[in-house]
Specification:
homodimer; alpha+beta; Arc Repressor Mutant, subunit A; 2 domains; 3-stranded mixed beta sheet; DNA-binding; repressor (chains A, B)
Chain lengths: 146, 146
DNA sequence: AAACTATTTATAAAGATTATAATATAAGAA
DNA sequence: TTCTTATATTATAATCTTTATAAATAGTTT
């Protein structure tokens, strides 16, 4: 599964004329295997061992490239740094306000809201963003123990 | 209407034991009258005339206080700085990807999504966030003229 | 293999936000 | 009203994320 995603992603890069470098390969692979929606710095630190000379700028540059090609989504929550998510299928996120954990959940999509927004405002709507906030089971349990 | 909002907001501050300073008064008033979802710096610049000695930190501090008390919502989009929105009634935003304009629209709320998320993930859901992206009529018109 | 162009690296710069410490002030008590 | 005290403001510096720049490197095409 992950292999397929990686292969498809590399094909996308090839088709778009984006060069496949070892760094790009590694960043993509890390994003696909990571279930944690990492920040740019997370990725940088994770690949430090394999690429001792890699620059943070490289990570940022390539995440931007991936975003522009549609492989990666950038998540900007309130906290300081953006998180990056490899795009697979339509899903949303629940975010724990206690520990920051992000969990995926699937939902049919909110076409109806987009249509209403388009109708009311006259915008040509292209997409939307939605996320749910709350407290994860672990944090709830911790609270109970006090 | 705006007067009412301001009065209610000041009452909220009083009830919460937050001191009402001239700066806070001015920031709240500006937020209520502003239809533009300003950044901290917008507010800072707008009040420069009235408070020549006011520090940016004051603006940030007070926006945080207002957020904690529930008077203000912080909007974090992809672009560099947060925008702040006086909380009135349940509404969402459409954001123009061309010029950045933000327009409000009302929608019943997405309780169903929250419930599904809670059920699937085991989270105690508290709230959600949603916004729609597209191109505003003005930007569409500009494009056509080329 | 040579040439061309995109990418990486290293570093500096920019920009937003927060921390700190000294000063000033709001709000309640005397 | 004046006094008192905790809180807020100011000025400044520091931090942190992200972007810009220029030189060096490495893919890709011929």
């Amino acid at each position: 599964m992950a292999q397929t995603h990686l292969k498809e992603a590399l094909d996308t890069l090839k088709d778009t004329g984006v060069r496949i470098t070892p760094q790009r390969h590694a960043i993509l692979e890390y994003l696909i295997n990571s279930m944690t929606h990492p920040t740019a710095d997370d990725i940088y630190k994770a690949l430090e061992g394999t690429f001792p000379n890699m620059s943070v700028a490289t990570v940022y540059n390539n995440l931007r490239v991936f975003r522009e090609v549609g492989l990666v989504k950038e998540l900007t929550y309130g906290d300081s740094s953006s998180r990056f998510d490899f795009v697979t299928t339509q899903h949303y996120h629940v975010i724990c306000e206690g520990c920051g954990k992000i969990v995926d959940f699937h939902y049919p999509g909110l076409d109806e809201v987009e249509q209403l927004a388009a109708h009311v405002t006259g915008f040509k709507v292209s997409h939307h963003r939605m996320e749910v906030y709350g407290e994860c089971p672990e944090c709830s349990k911790k609270k109970e123990m006090h």
